[in-house]
Amino acid sequence: MKRILLFGAGLSASTLIKYILDNSEAESWHLDVVDQNLDVLQSKLGGHPNATAHSFNALESEQRRPYIALADLVISMLPPMYHVDVAKDCIALQKHLITPSYISTEMRALDSEAKEAGIIIMNEIGVDPGIDHMSAMRILDHIKAIGGKIESFKSYCGGLITPDSDTNPWHYKFTWNPRNVVLAGQGSAACYREMNELKYLPYHRLFQRLDHIEIEGYGQFEGYVNRDSLNYLETYQIQDIPTIFRGTLRRPPFCEAWDIFVQLGMTDDAYMMKNAESLTPRQFLNAFLPFQKGVSVEEKFLKLVDYRKDLYDSFEYLGLFNDRVTFGIPDASPAHMLQQLLEDKWKLAPGDKDMIVMYHEIIYRKGEIGYVISSAMVAEGQDDRYTAMSNTVGLPVGIAAKLILNNKIHEKGVTLPVRHEIYSPILAELEQFGITFKESEKQI
Amino acid sequence: MKRILLFGAGLSASTLIKYILDNSEAESWHLDVVDQNLDVLQSKLGGHPNATAHSFNALESEQRRPYIALADLVISMLPPMYHVDVAKDCIALQKHLITPSYISTEMRALDSEAKEAGIIIMNEIGVDPGIDHMSAMRILDHIKAIGGKIESFKSYCGGLITPDSDTNPWHYKFTWNPRNVVLAGQGSAACYREMNELKYLPYHRLFQRLDHIEIEGYGQFEGYVNRDSLNYLETYQIQDIPTIFRGTLRRPPFCEAWDIFVQLGMTDDAYMMKNAESLTPRQFLNAFLPFQKGVSVEEKFLKLVDYRKDLYDSFEYLGLFNDRVTFGIPDASPAHMLQQLLEDKWKLAPGDKDMIVMYHEIIYRKGEIGYVISSAMVAEGQDDRYTAMSNTVGLPVGIAAKLILNNKIHEKGVTLPVRHEIYSPILAELEQFGITFKESEKQI
Prior knowledge:
The first copy, chain A, is of the alpha/beta class. In chain A, 34% of the residues lie in helices and 23% in strands. The first copy, chain A, has three domains: 2-123, NAD(P)-binding Rossmann-like Domain (Rossmann fold, 3-Layer(aba) Sandwich); 131-258 and 351-386, 2-Layer Sandwich (Dihydrodipicolinate Reductase, domain 2); 267-345, no CATH class.
C-alpha cells in the first residue's frame, strides 16, 4: 500500500480528498490527512477505511516529519507561505511533494537539492495557476509541432458564479477570499506586450483597458490584465512572441463599476480613515467626492458616472447611499470598509454555485496564412462542498499524485506542469470529470 | 561670549550663517560650524573672526558631544532623521536646540525630558513648516482676540522660480531635491475638511482638484492639497473649524500637465522597468499608452490630452517624443527615468532665482457679518547662495536663536513657533529683510 500525506483539508481540498479516496481501492492507497479542524476533516473523510484523520500541527516540522517519513508522496494544501518549509522536510526525507501554489523564489532555490534527493516538487498544478498552464502548453506544443510561428498569446481566467446564481447587477459574488478581491491588482503596475511594445498599466487604470470576450453558451466577459504577463515567457518557451497578455475575467459591467471605487480611492488599504466607526455608507462615499454646496451625494455621483443609470444602480444596490446605518468598525482602511459593505451584498445564497472560466486565444502563422485558435473551459460547481474551485484545484493535484506514484513522471526537482508527459494525461483524465476545453480554429 | 554650534552648512544654511555672523559683534556670539565639506564651509564663513570651521563627523555622538558641552545653543541643519539623536545629546548636556524640520513622533516623545532638562527644542521654524505657522497664528490669534469665529482656513506654499527665470512651458524649475518633486504626493491619500465634510483624495486624483489663487503683481497660481491638512488643527487650536485645507502652489497649467504623468503611471517608483537602459524617451512614453495599430505616439498622446496644444507642447519641450537618444540607466523605475528627463530641462540657468510663495485665506464671522482675510508673501532669491529657500529657512532660525540666547522665550520642551512671544518678534524682524505679508480684509 502507498501512503499519501495531505496537509490541510480546507475548502479547496474537498474534491482532492474525494478523488484520492475514490481511487484508493484500485490504486492501493492510504490517505493520511492533517487538519486542525478535526470535525470538518472527519466529515470529508466520511469514515472511509483507507483514510486516517490527524489533527497535529502540520506547521511544526518536528510533528510532521515522522509522518512524512512514512509517506510515499506529500501534498501541501497549507497557505502558500508554509510550502517551502514542508519542501525542505521532503528533500531531507526524499519524498515527492505537490502544491497547487505559485513557485516562490525560495521554492525555486530548492531545485538542485530536490534533484539531488531524487524527488519531484510539483507546483502550480491547480487552477490559475495549473489548468491554464497545461491547456496552453498543449496548444503551443501543437503549433510548434506543425511548424507554426506563434504571434500572439492571450489567456484569461476568472472565478465567477453560474448564470443561475447571478442575481445582482455586479454579476459577481465572493467565491474566495473577499479581501483579495477588494485589493486585486494593487502593487506594481501590470505589464504585458502587444505587437512587440512593452506596456505598463498602473492600478488606477487597470479596470479601464479591457478585452471583450464571448464564450458560447455563456455570453459576454471582460478581461483586465493580471500582474506581469511576461512571467511565463520562458516557462512556455515563447520568449520572442510579439503579443502576450494574461487577464482576469469578470462579467460586464463589473470592471467599469469597480473602476469607480478605484478612481475615488475607496479600495485604498494604506491608511485608516479618521472617523470610520461613525460613518454611514453615504458619508463614506461622500468622503471621496468633492464638496459642492447644496448638491446631494446622489447628484454628485450621477455627474461622476456621466448619468449612467446602470452604474448608479450598481452602487445603490450595495447600499452606498444609505445614511441610516454606521460601519461601527474603528480604525478601518477604506478597503476594509468597502469589504464590509460588499460581504453583505455579494454573499453566496443557499444553492448558489461558483464557476471557473478560462479562455485562451492564440494566433499563429504557417507560411502565408494566419490562424487563430480559441479555447474555452467553463467549470460549474456541483454544490457548496464540490465547488468549481475545489474541483479544478483538487482534480489536477490528485491526478498528478497518481501519475507520480505510478512512476509516469520522470522529471525531478522544483517544477510546474508544462511538459507533455504530465499535462497530456492530466487533461485527458480531467475530461472524464467534465473539465473540457472547447477549441476552435479559423483562418484570419 | 556665547557660543552657537551649527551642524550642517548645506544649501539652506547660507543665510543662517550670514545672519549669525552679521549679528556676532553686537550680540557677542561665536559660531562653530561643522560640515564634512570644509571648502564650501570656509567659503561661507569668509574668514570671519567670530567663526570656526570644523569637519568632524557630526553624526557621531562621541565626536559632537564635547562641542555641544561648550555651546550655549545648538542648531541642527542635518538631514531630518538625525535630529532626534542630536536632541538626546542636547537634553543630556542641557543645551537648547533649534531644527527647521517637522517634529517626528520620536522627537515629540522627548518633550518631558527636554522640559526636565530646562531646555527648549524649537522645531518647524523654517519655511513650510515655519513662516506659515507664524503668519497663520498671527491672523488666527487676532481673530480670536476680536471675538471672531473662524470658519475656514486655507493655506498654501510653493517653492517656485521668479518671473524673470520663468522660461519654460511648465513655469517650473528644480529649486530643491528633484526626486522629492517627482514623488510629491505619493503615499497615503491627502486629507482635508470642507464645510465639516472630511475629504480624502488619492494620489491619482491629487492634481485634478485645484484651488485657483491670484497674487497681486505675480498673477495666477494653483494649489493642490498637501498631505493631511488636519495635522495642525490642535496645534493651531482650531479643532472645530468647518474648513481646513493646506496646499502646495504651482503655476498653471503645471498641475494639469503633471497629472498626465500621474495618470499614465510615469511617476511610479515601485518597480523597475524591464528595459530601461535601451529605451528612448518616446518608447518610455509609449510604454504607458495603449497599443493602436498604425497610430503614432504623437497621435495617441494628442487624443489622450483632448488635442490640447499647450499640454502637447509641454511634453514636447521635455523631449518625450524624442526617439534618437536612450536613457542608458539600467534597473530604473519610471520615476527615476522621468527625473532624468526633467533634471535636464528644469535645471536653473545662471542668473535664475528661486521664489517662495505663501498665501493664507481665512474666513471668519463676527456677529452677523462674514469677513475674508487674504495674506500673501512672496520672497525672491538674491542669487544662487542667498536663495529664497535659504533666506526663508535661515532667517527665522537665526532670529529664534537670538531670542533664545537673550532669554526672550520662556517656553520649554519640544515645540514649534505658534505662540505670540515667539512669532511676533520673528515676523517683525523678517520684515526688515523684506519678508513681508501683504494682508487685505473684506466683508463677504
